[in-house]
Design a protein that fits this description.
Elements lengths: L2 H11 L13 H7 L13 H15 L18 H7 L5 E5 L10 E4 L3 E5 L8 E9 L9 E8 L3 E7 L2
Antiparallel strand pairs: 1-6, 2-3, 2-6, 3-4, 4-5
């Protein structure tokens, strides 16, 4: 199984996880945050932590190991994922302004400092299904749950694709 397929599978299984009482914490949320370089028990926005955790799980599922030129992401910053990807070898491709160039399993960075995982390619009208941590029914970047969302490609600033 390719890493991107594993990533979409891992993220989908997490839909419905919620933080506790709007605290940016909770048993599963703290596990997501432990996949980053920040203290997992402190309260901070966790959308990027969710993606880090999913990548770590997808690597195990796809039997992909870190190496000298490929390290899994540990950043808690959505926009910092671009920097992480550019530091990798050819196992990741970073594309700004991706438009219709999005596939399930891509990491998508939004223009409003938020991040998620694509669950589909864009429709003819330019809408992409995504799975995001720390969002809500209105699509906030401070929402408190892992949810499947539908976003227009105009909201996506960058996509990162695994090539392995």
């Amino acid at each position: 199984m390719k890493l991107s397929e594993s990533l979409a599978k891992i993220a989908t299984a997490e839909i419905g996880v919620e933080e506790v009482d709007g605290t940016n914490c909770g048993p599963r949320v703290n596990e997501y945050k432990a996949a980053t370089n920040l203290p997992p028990l402190e309260s901070w926005p966790w959308c990027a932590a969710f993606v880090c955790w999913c990548v770590r799980g997808a690597m195990k599922l796809a039997s992909v190991n870190e190496g000298a030129t490929f390290k899994r992401p540990t950043t808690a910053g959505a926009w910092d994922f671009e920097n992480w990807s550019k530091r990798q070898d050819n196992t990741t491709q970073t594309k700004r302004e991706p438009a219709n160039d999005i596939k399930a399993g891509d990491i998508v960075i939004f223009r409003f400092s938020h991040i998620g995982i694509a669950a589909s390619s864009p429709t003819l009208n330019g809408f992409v299904e995504t799975i995001e941590g720390n969002t809500d029914g209105q699509g906030s970047r401070e929402g408190g749950a892992v949810l499947k969302k539908v976003r227009h490609i105009s909201k996506i600033k960058t996509r990162i694709r695994f090539t392995i």
